[in-house]
Design a protein that fits this description.
Strand content: 5-15%
Mean pLDDT: 86
Number of strands: 7
Number of domains: 2
Radius of gyration: 25 Å
Shape: elongated
Structural class: alpha/beta
Strand order of the largest sheet: 3-2-1-4-6-5-7
Distance between the termini: 25 Å
Order of helices and strands: EHHEHEHEHEHEHHEHHHH
CATH architecture of the largest domain: Alpha-Beta Complex
CATH superfamily of the largest domain: Spore Coat Polysaccharide Biosynthesis Protein SpsA, Chain A
Length: about 300
């Protein structure tokens, strides 16, 4: 039983070819399947073509956003609507080939909750390949989830793993990390990656650079998301300490008879002390808010085992 979640955005050139290719392989994997197209506010004829497919195939469901929200939101919505035990995602541009899906299913049988594709021989521009290698190296170094390809669109999830995700912004690039952080088993398998034959890439050099700060967001959320006071407190204490040292230095000069009232260093010291206190209080408030939300959502924590099910 498989749910196939396909986020689409301006894919009128490829969506029919994608469906034909998918149907050559999907029925061989399961007798029960559903295909969920999530149209991310396409401005072309993508939605109408998807509706035509739905008329021919009762297993197709279509959801369309009023405007473009991004791939992360489209995936999250698709996961919420998926009904089957296994959830497959892939893009409709046919760079990720439906013929490779079987490799993911074979690997998943070993007990993994997420099997991600690894575009071992990626067929993209040189700049995109270099940026991707750098991104994957940094992500693996920071978080220890050793994968060659975090952002391949071809992924197979268990229902629990997929529905545990609440993606937004650029967080879809960190799905293996997010899933691993929740205690699920993650792995990858090499898959064939094809050149783009339809449409235009949604990512360019400028977009890749502007979305790189997402890595800093994920670093904070994964390392300090449950203890923000440790992050803000350390920074606040450091800044406060520097301000105090400056003030002590100026105080000594003042007692020695030197004028300090017009020195820029005096204003810097005061500014650092105030800033350090404010940053520390920010961490304290964040900790208090997190503590309250934890108490309110404790019953929603995912359990791997419960004796109540025996």
């Amino acid at each position: 039983m498989i749910s196939v979640v396909v986020p689409v955005f301006n894919e009128e050139e490829s969506i029919l070819h994608f469906y034909d290719e998918l149907m050559r392989h999907l029925p061989k994997l399961s007798k029960s399947y559903e295909i969920i197209f999530v149209d991310d506010g396409s401005a072309d004829n993508t939605l109408n073509l998807a509706k035509e497919l739905a008329k021919k195939d009762k297993n197709i469901s279509i959801y369309s956003f009023r405007r473009n929200h991004g791939k992360a939101e489209a995936l999250t919505f698709g996961f919420q609507k998926a009904k089957e035990d296994l959830i497959l995602t892939l893009d409709a541009d046919l760079q990720d080939k439906p013929s490779e899906v079987k490799k993911l299913f074979n690997k998943q049988k070993e007990g993994f909750d997420l099997v991600s594709g690894w575009r071992e021989h990626r067929r993209d521009s040189f700049a995109k390949i270099i940026f991707s290698k750098f991104f994957n190296l940094m992500a693996s170094t920071f978080w220890g989830v050793r994968l060659h390809d975090y952002n391949c669109g071809l992924k197979l999830y268990t229902k629990d793993a997929a529905k545990s995700l609440n993606l937004y912004g650029g967080m879809h690039r960190f799905i293996p990390l997010l899933v691993a952080e929740k205690g699920f088993r993650v792995t990858e398998v090499p898959v064939v990656h094809d050149i783009r034959r339809f449409g235009k890439s949604k990512y360019n050099a400028i977009k890749l650079l502007t979305q790189s700060p997402d890595m800093m967001t994920m670093l904070f959320l994964s390392k300090y998301g449950k203890r923000p006071l440790h992050f803000f407190g350390f920074i606040g204490i450091f800044i406060f300490g520097v301000g105090v040292l400056i003030s002590l230095y100026l105080s000594i000069l003042h007692f020695l008879g030197e004028p300090i009232g017009t020195r820029p260093l005096l204003f810097l010291g005061i500014l650092l002390i105030i800033s350090g206190i404010q940053i520390g209080l920010t961490g304290l408030i964040a900790d208090l808010v997190l503590n309250v939300s934890r108490k309110n959502s404790f019953s929603e924590i995912m359990l791997k085992y419960s004796s109540e099910n025996i």
